[in-house]
Amino acid sequence: MAMRQTPLTCSGHTRPVVDLAFSGITPYGYFLISACKDGKPMLRQGDTGDWIGTFLGHKGAVWGATLNKDATKAATAAADFTAKVWDAVSGDELMTLAHKHIVKTVDFTQDSNYLLTGGQDKLLRIYDLNKPEAEPKEISGHTSGIKKALWCSEDKQILSADDKTVRLWDHATMTEVKSLNFNMSVSSMEYIPEGEILVITYGRSIAFHSAVSLDPIKSFEAPATINSASLHPEKEFLVAGGEDFKLYKYDYNSGEELESYKGHFGPIHCVRFSPDGELYASGSEDGTLRLWQTVVGKTYGLWKCVLPEDSGELAKPKISFPETTEEELEEIASENSDSIYSSTPEVKA
Hints:
This protein is mainly beta. The chain is 3% helix and 47% strand. Strand 19 (197-202) and strand 20 (205-210) form a beta hairpin.
């Protein structure tokens, strides 16, 4: 029986959502952070999209956001020439790291002791978070603003992307190991530790490279310009989104397009799989995050599969809330027809 994808819409932001990241799986589930041009990054429960809190303190658009593995710390990169580190449990600001230009990207080491940043001044910086007063280590070599920078190979190496170049750096020697040049602007980059795979998007292309050698593995062509792509943790599927407002799902092995969905009302800027692979999140120019099921119809999070009495209809996964009656569910649905939230969250975590 055919199943219809029913995404969860997470409202709250007032400007385009430009970056998002999941934590690892913790004893309390997993978490999702979003970066937005409204300058107010938000933390949510990863499997439901429920708002937990907003990190208040930036004075400009937030371009990058990340969580450490156990979701105890968050980091954000902003247009106010700063990166900030936050206590993700209390919402308190732990430190502000001043830069000389707009900061676009942040990434924690696995032990959360170091933070990697990159931005418009073309420099990679490594901050020792146990010594916030110390000057950061700097790596130069990029010829245009840095869009993304990630730790890889158990933090022994660094991957970074500027406009049309992806570079691999050795952490110990702070020197460039290898680089990849593209004939058009690189729009996104994702690192998959299991298998050391690098996912790069540029134009309509989704390319996979070895994160160790940068050697090509395979590439797919999408029907529209792609802004972001993410590989399923089990490497079964790939999802991508871009300028035509659609999300595409591909078979990673064959490259076959399996599904495509239009749910956003603007270009999609970022997409990421959850750490358990059960869902993927997308952020858009329309100011919303949406959560999509990897396997449509599976009971998971707020989704509950309800089969219609007439088998000729499409089965529709029902969005439900725990410990609520059918009457309460209908009341919630009528009050929140467009969102799983009743109002824009404004309270600090």
